[in-house]
Model the fold of this input.
Amino acid sequence: MKWTETLVRRPALVTVIYMILFLFGSYSYSKLPIDLLPDMEVPVVTVVTAYPGASALDVEDKLSKPLEDSLGAIANLKEIASTSRENLSMVTLVFNSSADVNIAANDVRQNLEGLKRSLPSDAESPQVLKFDIGQMPIVTFAITTRGDDVRLLKNEVEDALINPLRRVPGVGSVMLSNSPDKVVRIDVHQDRLLAHGLTMSELAGLIQANNMNIPAGDLTIEDLRFSVRMTGEQKSIDALRNLPLMKSPLGDGMILLKDLADIQLDLADETELAYVNGNTTMLGYIRKTSDANVLDVAKVSNDIFETAKKRLPAGTEIQVMESGAVFIEGTINNLTNTALTGGALVSLIVFLFLRRIGPTLIIASAIPLSIIVTFLAVYGLGFTLNSVTLIALSLSVGMVVDNGVVALENISRKIDEGMDRFQAAYE
Done:
């Protein structure tokens, strides 16, 4: 092969080619998106339907079975299974590996449109969900505080932490769990209500009528026109407590809301619970965009955590529970250590057997050069640097060393037999 002989007899050309590949490989490595797992689509679609107040048997008869019968005829379907629980039906559809999961999900939605009329009227609309590895959280963090319930700090956490995280480049979404909204609870005293001749519905109407803003028309002064509004909406708990409802039938004074009920700011009814080390906590989940670098997003997120601690009330702690960056950094460090250790040991063994500096340097340079050039191919093919590609690189280091040692030993043997070094390398 002419090109092989040309490369063998022109080492300067080979050196220049390797330098160019090394430069492009280094540039590709700096631009490679780093992720925990490769971007792949799992051909699984789940249909979730809520049926409030229904037993597991009712859910199975009225939701799961009709859904299975209807969805079982979809193209490329490999397997279908359902789970029926109180208030909830889950139908899982597994498609062939060659199926496009987006097309499959659209087929499921179209099938459900024709089935909705036959489903129970009090059942909620079926939700079609796709399993997307890219939507898994890359950082999970917990927010706790000493003493008070941390959930009462939801607004402060939103301003100091959640909103800054959402503005970070590469962050797709930030979700909070176990963070119920604040609500105003009005606990009415029935005896006081009856004493004033009121019912619960009348009290609700009085509160609504006396706690609202009312448009009062327009006011025109020469060429200027103003909108007039009568403000009656209360802005604080104390103002709501002192809200006048009606003139007292027992005297000359006004009946205030606090005369009939206890008013306090509280949390909405709990639908989930989360604890860290026995303390009530709010859990946060950070998801990245498809083209974002996990390490960069995690680093900026950690900086925001430290800044948010200073803005939140004293005693508030933000703890990272899980981070994809930790695993990726460990894998990269392991690959680096493997390459360095393997290169050093192989170079030492080659030098002990061949007693030549040149072949030793060739083996020592083969490992980093081959890995760097691989980054160019990974970047060019549009892949990401993830746990799978890093493990593959770790395994391939051994193959590179084996092939290099075998080829180099062959060349050295032919040179010892008296063959010209260029001819030995060529053969």
Observations:
- The first helix runs from residue 2 to 9.
